[in-house]
Amino acid sequence: xxxxxxxxxxxxxxxxxxHKIEEVDYKNVTLLKSFITDTGKIVPSRVTRIKTYYQRRxxxxxxxxxxxxxxxxxK
Amino acid sequence: MRHYEIVFIxxxxxxxxxxxMVDRYRALVKKDGGHVHxxxxxxxxxxxxxxxxxxxxxxxxxxxxxSAKTCKELKTTIQFNDAxxxxxxxxxxxxxTEPSPMMAPPLKDGExxxxxxxxxxxxxxxxxxxxxxGKTETSSVEPLAEAADAETAAPEAxxxxxxxxxxxxxxxxxxxKEEEEKPS
Lengths: 75, 184
Known about the structure:
The structure holds two protein chains of two kinds.
Chain A: H1 16-19, H2 29-33, H3 45-48, H4 52-67
Chain B: E1 2-10, H1 18-31, E2 35-51, E3 54-66, H2 68-79, E4 84-92, H3 120-141, H4 147-158, H5 165-181
Antiparallel strand pairs in B: 1-3, 1-4, 2-3
Helix pairs in contact in B: 3-4, 3-5, 4-5
């Protein structure tokens, strides 16, 4: 079994606090699209390394956008 | 006075009634002494999935300030309007007047997407990871009895994002599970 001795530093994909985004807007489809897979699922935060605070708001925004048919529920 | 944000979707066949509808709602809000802070017509948009057997519809956005009673009245008016196929009503803390991201001009072909991301590398990693995620999901659905299959699937999955430590741990995790199950 290959053992990765030195754990690589976990990179944050998108630093919401760095970019000072106050509100994750459900209308911002271009932003939301980068957090869903090609099948339309929301990417988990363990992959994107987003803080829980933003991940929850992101999920809520995606769900609203789905309701308004701005994003699909599934493909 | 409370602030609300309303988005409603109008059936394309009733698109000519939009102006009349919006004027009526504005009058309703102003009668109560409220304000309309933002009004946007996103026009005809392609829907992500069909609603009422249509694939295109008009989107209207309204940011209003009014009392709770007027909001209720407005909501019932909208609900009983057959032309409107979907509504979303959200309570807000403050008035919003800036144009929404929907009103930003669409990107032309070849124009770089200016949306802020941590880094280009991170964006590429995410693309690799989301593909990786799709692959690991499908491989986990297959029966766990075949350890050989898992071994062939893991190196395949590792290929696209070779530099990413997270992907390796993801690929290694199901493999170790199967290895544990095998001796048992």
